[in-house]
Amino acid sequence: MKSIMTKARSDKILALLHAYYGEVKPDLNYRNIYELVIAVVLSAQTTDRQVNGVTGNLFSKYPDFGSLAKAVGRDVEKIIKSTGFFKTKTKNIISLSRMICARFGGVLPDSLENLLELPGVGRKSANVILSMGFNKPGLAVDTHVSRISKRMGYSQGKTPAAIEKDLCTIIIPQKWKMTHLLFIRHGRSICTARNPLCNVCPVSELCNYFLSPEI
Predict the structure, then answer these.
(1) Cα gap 141→134, rounded to integer Å
(2) In sequence order, what E strands does the chain have?
(3) d(CA 124, CA 122)
(4) Which tens digits make up the pLDDT trace of 43-101?
(5) How far is CA 184 from CA 26, 44, 69, 178, 192, in A?
(6) pTM for the full model?
(7) Each residue of 75-113: b (16+ CB within 10 Å) or e?
(8) Active site residues
(9) CA-to-CA distance for 210 and 54, rounded, in angstroms?
(10) 146-to-61, 135, 160 alpha-carbon distances in Å
């Protein structure tokens, strides 16, 4: 039987997932805020592994926004080609770097509004940058977070923005970053898009999908 998500039930879900997975870290490799932003933009419609495979070379050649702002597009394209949509991504990360240098003095802004103005940065990416880079509250909704939110009973929203709103209504801001990371890890390892492993899931008894599989 389906049940309505409550704060108490959500707290139990997050506690069980945290106990099961421990402290979850991002899968993207980065050492500073510049590398995080570029890696996040490159991660669109590809895997973190693919991005990690090219960023070492990219960051060695272009170690900051200033150097990337002066890059020749075709040189960058050669480096990031394997991430897919490389022409668009090249334009975005060079334009983004130029904007940061021209408008923000080479320093990445730490507000959602300003981040959303940057080429290649949508709401999901901005929330990742806020939470991972600035340790500010932000709950990014990707395909894993969306799927798990619907299955668990947090939201039936039709858009990432609607799902984000529902999640943030139930979960306190201090837990948004943890929720994002735990849901991604859970979605990749157990609560997969096809044939989720409900028999080994640590939160199955609290999940609407397990109780009512037609979801």
Answers:
(1) 18
(2) none
(3) 6
(4) 999 999 999 999 999 999 999 999 999 999 999 999 999 999 999 999 999 999 999 99
(5) 9, 15, 32, 10, 10
(6) 0.91
(7) ebeebbeebeebeebbebbbebbbbbbeeeeeebbeeee
(8) 124, 142
(9) 39
(10) 36, 22, 7
